[in-house]
Amino acid sequence: MIEIKQLKAEIDGKEILKGLDLTIEPGKVHAIMGPNGSGKSTLSYVLAGREDYVVTGGDIVLNGESIMDMAPEERAAKGVFLAFQYPVEIPGVQMTTFMKTAVNSVRKARGQSELDAIDFLKLMKGKCKELGISDEMMKRAVNVGFSGGEKKRNEVLQMAMLEPTFAVLDETDSGLDIDALKVVADGVNKMRGGNRSFLVITHYQRLLDYIKPDVVHVMANGKIIKTGGPELAHELEAKGYADIVGAAA
Amino acid sequence: MSLPLERIPTTKDERWKYTNLPRALKKLDLKPASLGWASNVALLEPTAPGEKQYRDTNLWDLNTAHVSDVQFFSGDAEIDVAAQNGQWLSPRIVIDVKDNQTVTIVERQNGQGAYWKNTVVQIRIGNNSTLRHYRMNDEAADGVSTIFTHVKVGRDSTYETFSLIEGAGFVRNQTHAEIQGENGHCWMNGINLLKGDQHADTTITIEHQQPNCTSKQTFKSVLDGKSHCVFQGKVHVHQIAQKTDGYQLSNALILSPTAEMDTKPELEIYADDVKCSHGATTGRLDDAPLFYMRARGIPEDMARALLIEAFCGQAIEGVSDENMQDMIRGKVSQWLTSRA
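The joint structure predicted for all components is written out below.
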């Protein structure tokens, strides 16, 4: 369960988030839609703890505990996961090394025993298979030379490996063709349920045909300006943002 | 006997602009000493070889005048050049690789206390041979180590070298390679890991004197504290040396605002059908990969270490001996751990 309360944040002295409220119950999937520049990506970075954003007010509470003052790695250990809109390439760091270091860091922080090489590979191979990721891809450097689809599948793989309680998907549909979109959506859908909450950030209703949200929010100018059911996404797709954003302003 | 400071290059000499050897030596109180090697072995060439324009050979001549120890190798060997406190040493290592040989030499340069080691390494590689020359520098904080390496590479032969500097007081590694036979290769790689007040200078001249030769230089430097690193690399392609392939790369990673990197790549080309390139960068660790790794739960220190190891990796790939690769990787991660 995630509670975002009156969240305000700025970058380079410019206020982007202007008092945002959002609560996602355990097991629910919320979507945020909104025009360019509304602050959607900023919200995702602030939730994950990127340090160049300055939080000037409000609170973020995950499962009853404020994570506002935590470093990104502490948040990850507490169960926050951000699937990046633009996954970062890391030349020279092999996927397997990266993944093993991440999984064991998180397990250690959660008080679980670290996985040895054999158990880790077993886990990883299983998850790779579910997502159609080849062993060969795991031998490459992180995201280096990956296609758009491979990068996004890799994000979902990392999510599956790290088992977050709150996952943010930032424009996971961008740069994906329909087949890749289905694979990614299937991966996400398999993880739905239990205590895990999702926040799906997207421009387009298309992704929400595959990952069906429980609640849809419209974000504009650093705030949530409208909340509704899945039908809201269809309404937005038909009419565009102008009406809603205009009406709220 | 005091050090002949008047014969030592100053920062007025172009190739010594960033490395102030007289200042480093003035602080020391040293006496001529010996490593206990033999000294009655004939020198390959007593006077400095090579064209006049690359002479810059004051230290070579000084070594010849005061040579304290000589060792001669023509097969696989491990050499320790270990100085003691108060010593002024002038060791000479002669490596003569005959035709049709593959030889591996591991040279460890280290010491204790304050000292000056003015080493000369003379190498001759015959035809159709390979010399792998791996140098591990782990010098004392008050040690001064100057090494002049001169290499002649014959036809169809390869000089492959890796230099790791993981400990330094004040190091100058100067190499002059002459590729004298067709289809000769000179592959030089190195990693400098510096912290505190350490100073390390890598100065290289490679002369392509025949056609169809290649040279590659890949150097990675990681600088912390107030350390100072210098990389000067020169590729000289003679008029006859058509189809030369010359490549030079120096990347420096600055971990502290007080560290300094000086890089001077030079190409001097007199042939008209050659491929030569150089690249030099100096920068800090990128924020984007660091955040990406931390967002996956990897603690900041560990993420930095992984990124620095990855940064160094490209230089290690140039080492053809896999055990040596593993050893170097181990040393890099050890250094990173000790830094934290």
